[in-house]
Amino acid sequence: MGKEQAPISDDEWERFLREAEAGGSGAPEEPSARARMVARRLREEEAAGRAPRDEGWRTYQPPRRGGRTGWYVVGVLVVVGLLVVALAPWRWAGGGGEPLGAETGQPSQAPPTEGIEQPPTLEQPFRGSPAARWSDGVAGIHLPAARATGWMSKEQVAQALERSRDFLVASSLDPGVLRGERPADAIALVNPHQSDVRDFLGTAFREPSRENDPLLLFSRFEKSDVRVVGDVVKTRGRVSYREGERGALEVTTDVTYVYPVVRAEEGSDEVVRTIVRREVVMSWDDPAKVVIDPGTFSLVSYSVDTTNGGCDTFTGYLTPEFGDERTGAGDGATVDPYDRSTSMDERMREGGADAECGVATRS
Fold first, then answer.
1. What is the model's pLDDT at position 324?
2. More confident residue, 332 or 137
3. Please, what's the largest Cα pairwise distance for the chain?
4. Closest to 305 measured CA to CA, from 350, 260, 272, 251
5. How far is the CA of 304 from the CAs of 3, 118, 265, 298, 342, in angstroms?
6. CB 308 within 8 A of CB 274
7. Are 304 and 337 in contact (CB under 8 A)?
8. CA separation for the pair 227, 178 (Å, rounded)
9. Are 49 and 55 in contact (CB under 8 A)?
10. Among 262, 258, 261, which residue's Cα sits nearest to residue 276?
11. What is the DSSP letter of 110?
12. DSSP for 50-88?
């Protein structure tokens, strides 16, 4: 959609998309994230036997609770460490047992709660957390085996999966981006001809808001306020794919990132964790059917669920709270941020559209 076009209602979009799928002559060649999101939602709800929801552009924005599942935690201790040291990942993770194997499918239950009484420290920032057994950075993002799909050969699918993971690294793990820098490498992988996404990205960093929030896609902290402890971010997640519209390769990424942070002031030693679960759906389109630059993907949808990253604050940065800043319990759903046994869509529905902030059971 171009900027100068009049707004189009969801009903009109849905009617248009049904006609386009039936072979209508007016289907756009330039990709639209809004059109893809509506089409994907319709397919999923029809498959599940549910009536379509009356939702608008950026349907997968986080609800108030989900997008900022505040650090309004019941029964989680936070305190103090003394030394920053560079140790091997599984030594400084604070124990917690043997590393977990790759997540190859949706888990059946949440991680156990033993060890939760142990607070994080500068030396062991993942102590007392299920993330102590998770992998470091990119190693925690599992890629499936490639097979020929849609317009792509097996080799092309493998390359697209690697590049999809590259986007996750550049958007959520890159040290410069975590310090608040513009995620240029990640943005370079997004189809520049996707005008609605281009407009979103242009606005999100200049004037962040609920609708145009860069945290939907990127993890960023304001370096003058907060710094990440050490150089390890724990991750757990998986990547899946299927044939999408017009024979495209549609890749779904669902990853939880655990960031241990302290205040930026010299000598700060209170460690808290910000936990971000982000789902990004990408379409690697056939250039014979869609206007796209080589080596880029079109965005289909993106959503985020955050614990201790700020609740109803839209500064463009994750804003964790420390001991003397916590404001008490929220009024939304109670959520275990480490529980990956429910889908992001279910997590969003559980939060409820009217909840101000949710309650995280642990950090």
1. 72
2. 137
3. 66
4. 350
5. 26, 27, 28, 18, 14
6. yes
7. no
8. 8
9. no
10. 258
11. P
12. PPPP---SSTTSPPHHHHTB-S--SS----B--------
Give how far the C-alpha of residue 210 lies from the chain's centroid of Cα atoms, to the nearest Å. 15
Residue 302 in 3-state DSSP? Answer: strand
What SS3 state is found at 292?
A: coil
Domain ranges of the chain: 60-360
**Strand 334-335 vs strand 234-243: parallel, antiparallel, or unpaired?**
unpaired
DSSP class of 129: S
pLDDT tens-place string over residues 255-298? 999 999 999 999 999 999 999 999 999 999 999 999 999 999 99
Length of the chain: 363
125 phi and psi, to 5 degrees?
Answer: -70, -10
CA-to-CA dists, residue 218 to 34, 70, 139, angstroms: 19, 18, 19
The token pair at 119 is 């607070």
DSSP code per residue over 144-161: PPP--BTTB-HHHHHHHH
Cα R_g (the chain), whole angstroms:
20
Q: What is the mean pLDDT of the chain?
A: 79
Tell me: the pLDDT tens digits for 313-354?
899 999 999 987 766 555 667 889 999 999 988 887 765 544
Q: What is the pLDDT of residue 327?
A: 60
Return the amino acid letter for 362.
Answer: R
pLDDT of residue 33: 66
According to DSSP, the residues that pair with 149 across neighbouring strands are 152
pLDDT in tens, 186-222: 999 999 999 999 999 999 999 999 889 999 999 999 9
Q: Higher-confidence residue: 75 or 126?
A: 126
278, 259 Cβ separation under 8 angstroms: no
d(CA 118, CA 358): 23
d(CA 122, CA 57): 42
